[in-house]
Specification:
The chain has 91 residues and is α+β, with helices and mostly antiparallel strands. The chain is 20% helix and 30% strand. It is built from one helix and six strands, in the order E-E-E-H-E-E-E. A hairpin with a 4-residue loop joins strand 2 and strand 3. The two termini are 15 Å apart.
């Protein structure tokens, strides 16, 4: 059994569901709550990496997560570079 790894998850809401996507492994899952979506994502990523021949081949580096600043019409959007480590969760 290998040591647990920390991955970054992006979560967004689609109607009644939260969708969680792992940014380092091409896996996504969903749940009725954010915690449920993240728990399902952790399980899905683990199962996926257990099934592939060379798991390291399927894990990419954490992308830079950044926001932007823009004003379009009446929309003003403030943005800043985010620390992706604070978004990461382990299970």
């Amino acid at each position: 059994m290998s040591a647990p790894q920390t991955f970054t998850a992006a979560v967004h809401r689609e109607e009644d569901w939260y969708v969680a996507q792992c940014l380092e492994v091409d896996v996504a899952s969903q749940g009725r709550t954010i915690d449920e979506a993240l728990a399902n994502l952790a399980e899905a990523a683990a199962l996926y990496l257990e099934e592939v021949d060379d798991p390291a081949q399927y894990v990419t580096s954490t992308p830079l997560v950044t926001l932007c600043r823009s004003k379009i019409g009446s929309w003003a959007v403030n943005c800043a570079i985010s620390d992706v480590k604070r978004l990461a969760r382990t299970r």
